Amino acid sequence: MSYQTVIADSDVIHGLNVGYLKFFGIWKTIKEYRACGKRNAIIKIKVFITLLLALPYIFCQYLSYFMIKVDIQKATFLNLHTLPALQMCCKILVFWFRLDSQSKLYDLMRKDFISIPKSNTSVTDEIYEKIAKKSNVLCKAAFVVNTSIVVLSIADPGISVDYILYHTGNMNTVTTGKKKIMGGWYPLPIDKSPFYEIIFAYEMIVMIWGGLFLAVYICMFYQVLMCLYAQFAVLSHHLTTLKFKLNQKTNQRNNSLLYNQLRDIIKDHQKLLSYANELRSVYNPLVTMILGMGIFVLVIAVFQFLFGKKGNPMFIFKFFQFLAYQAIEVSMFCFGSSYIETASSDLQFAIYSSDWYKADVKFRKAAQMMMVRSRKGETLTAIRMYPVNMETIMSILHFTYSVATLMSRMTE
Questions:
Q1: Bridge partners of residue 180, in order along the sequence
Q2: What pLDDT, on a 0 to 100 scale, did the predictor assign at position 364?
Q3: Nearest partner of 287 among 322, 331, 320, judged by Cα
Q4: pLDDT value of position 26
Q5: Using an 8 Å Cβ cutoff, are 188 and 199 in contact?
Q6: CA distance 337 to 389
Q7: N or C terminus of the chain: which is more exposed, having fewer CB within 10 Å?
Q8: Chain-centre distance for alpha carbon 366
Q9: Residue 270: how many CB atoms within 10 A of its CB?
C-alpha cells in the first residue's frame, strides 16, 4: 500500500465524536496503519479473542440441532444469540481484511478533504457540525441499547438450563432448573457443577465482549458513511455560492475565477465519487451480511416477543431491546445511504442555483457535464446491485412483522 498522512485530532470534522475509537484502540490502529502499512498488536489481539470466544459458541449452537429436541420456537431462540455472534465475527473480519481501504476512507473525516474558499468556512463548519451531531446521536443510541442488553442479561439471567436440555415449546412455561445468560447448548452436563459455573462465566465474557464491540464496529462504519454525506453536502453548498459580483467591469475576471472554482469543484466531485466507489466495495459484503442477518434476528425477536407477550415482563423487555438494537443497526446503513443518495443527487440543483446563466460558454459546458454526472445519486448496495435506502428499511420492517406473525400463528 502507499503510506497515507496521519490524521491529527485537529483535522477531524468539528463535533464528530471519535472518543470511543480512541478508547477501544481503533483510532490508534488506523493511525499506525496509515503511517507504516502494518496491523498493530491491538487489532491482532481483538481478532484472536473475538474468534476464540465466538466460534466455539456458534459451533455448539448449530451442533445442538442434532443433539437435543428442537421445535420452531426453540430453534428461533437458539439463533437469537448465535446470529449476533456471527455478525461480530463478520464485522471484525471485514475490518481486518479491508483495513487498507478502511484507513483510506478515514480521509473523509478530514474537514479539509475538499477545497473550500476561506469566505465559506464558517457556513461549511456549521454543515459539518450539524451532520456530525446527527451521526453522534445514533451512535450513542446504539451504545446505550447494547450496553443495557449486556447489563440486564448478566444481572437477570432468565434462560432455564432445563428448557435448553429437555423441553420444547414456550420457554416461559419451564420454571425449573438453573438460569443462564445466553440461549446456548454445549456438549457438557451444563446443569451440574462445575460445568454450569464455567459456562456461566464463559457466556458472561462473550456477552460483554461481543455486546460492546458489536456497537463499536457498527458505529465506526456508520461514522465514515456519514462523513461521506457531509462532504457531498458541503460541496453542494459550495456550488450554490458561485455568484458574479455586481460590478460589470469585473465580469471577465469573474468568468475566469468562477470557472477555476468550478474546475476545483469538479475535481473534488471526482474524488468523492472514487471514495464512494471504494466505500461501496468495502461495505457491500458488510451491508449484505447485516441486512440478511438483521432480518433473521428481527424476525426471531418479534416472534419470541409475540409468542411470549403474556409471560415474564422482564423477558418481554429483553426481546424489545433486541428489536431496538437490531432496528438501530439496520437503520444506520439505510439512513446513511439515503442521506448520501440525496446529497449527491442534490448537486445538480446546487449547480442550477449558481450564476451559470451569467457565465460564459466554457463554464456552462463544464456545469452541464457535472449535472449529468450527478444525476444519479450514490448509494450503498447489498448483494452488489440492490440499492440500500429508506425504502429498504420499510421493506425490512414490513417483511419482519409479516413473517414473525405467520410463524406465531403456525405454532398456536
A1: 159
A2: 86
A3: 331
A4: 93
A5: yes
A6: 6
A7: C
A8: 36
A9: 12
For residue 247, with 0-12 CB atoms within 10 Å meaning exposed, 13-18 middle and 19 or more buried, which class applies?
exposed
- State the Cα–Cα distance between residues 104 and 102, nearest whole angstrom: 5
The position carrying cell 438460569 is: 179
Cell of 294: 438483521
Within 10 Å of residue 268's Cβ, how many Cβ atoms?
A: 19
User: Is 0.85 surpassed by the pTM of this model?
Assistant: yes
Q: Which amino acid is at 69?
A: K
Using alpha carbons, list the distances in angstroms from residue 42 to 37, 38, 101, 291, 331. 14, 11, 18, 28, 29
C-alpha cell at 128: 459539518
C-alpha cell at 147: 450496553
- Quick one: how many helices (H) and strands (E) in the chain? 13, 4
Mean pLDDT, 10 residues at a time, the chain of 412 residues: 72 91 93 90 95 93 88 80 87 92 93 84 90 93 89 86 85 82 88 92 93 90 94 92 63 71 91 93 88 79 65 71 81 90 91 82 87 86 83 80 72 60
Residue with cell 475576471: 253
The three three-digit cell numbers of residue 305, written as one number = 416477543
